[in-house]
Amino acid sequence: MLAADRPHAPAAIRIDLGAIFVSMELSKSTWLITSLSPGAGERMSKHVVRAGDVAGLLERFAQLRAKAQARTGQEFGFIVIQEAGLDGFWIHRVLESEGIESHVVDPASIATSRRRRRAKTDKIEGEALVRALLAYKRGEPRVCAMVRPPSVEEEDRRRICRERQVLIIERTQHINRIKGLLFTQGITGYEPLRRDRRGRLSDLRTGDGRVLAAHVRSQIDRELDRLELIIEQIKAVEDERALLIAAQADNTPAAMLLNLKGIGPEFAIILYSEGLFRHFDNRRQLAAYAGLAPTPWQSGSIRHEQGVSKAGNARLRTTMVELSWLWVRYQPDSALARWFQERVQHNGGRHKKPAIVALARKLLIALWKYATAGVVIEGAIMKAA
Q: What global pTM score does this model have?
């Protein structure tokens, strides 16, 4: 009797859906397709497609649409979600070209269990993505962070500065390897980046007065061959960067940033291609995108700051910290540099690193306002024409 009088429990998931919600768990070998269709209740169906098989994926979508139409008598569209990751945005572009609504989500923004040992499988992750997509389409605030996929041109423009960073790291590795080989022979002071590196190598003598042994000399010669190749590639990348900047109009962010003293071509192109080409509604969004947003810890009477979140574009954040040190050096009379000096003096010359990170956040916001709205930074010196 008690069970008969109990009212019907509300469904955990809405079943009056106006679309077929699909999540894609991507890996190098397979794609797990998890879907929630109208008329199928709360049960989520799962299907595995071979990775890269776009035809098989679209065939599975056609099967889901046919089943939903057979159950309800109506035809439904698709809303697809996938995590940003190794596959980039080409799958998102394929889906959009087929007229399918597609979303790319930041995987770190999906709520997970806080238990020490939490279960994690592709099946669980796929269902979690579907639930996050449902909540997002219902309009729930801050349920997840959707990524704005860049255009093909915007994505390709990043390649210049990113390739140069990789080449600089490889160049440093070869230089250190050459110096390390010579140091084991008692030789110091050799600079592989000098133009006369080959001639000076023949004049070197070991710590005990010998010429370099044959195999050591051969290894160093091969290292120099690789080093010279990387130097040529860096020069080619820098030429492409110069052409890209020259093609920009005077009112574009990259060209405007170059007018400021202390900002060179490399910083200008990184700031433009990694961040300032995007649209931000406010300064908080910009700071969060760069990973320079503060991370407070407040619970009752406990209140302290954990530092910046670092959950953002690492290249943009690193560049801004480096640029902040240069800004203090080349723009000492600007309002931001004076703020930094006053803060450091107030702390007795200590805590420069936290202060420079705070300056990086302020400087990024100021450069964003300057490059997008033309707001001149107070006290900043422009380069001579």
A: 0.83
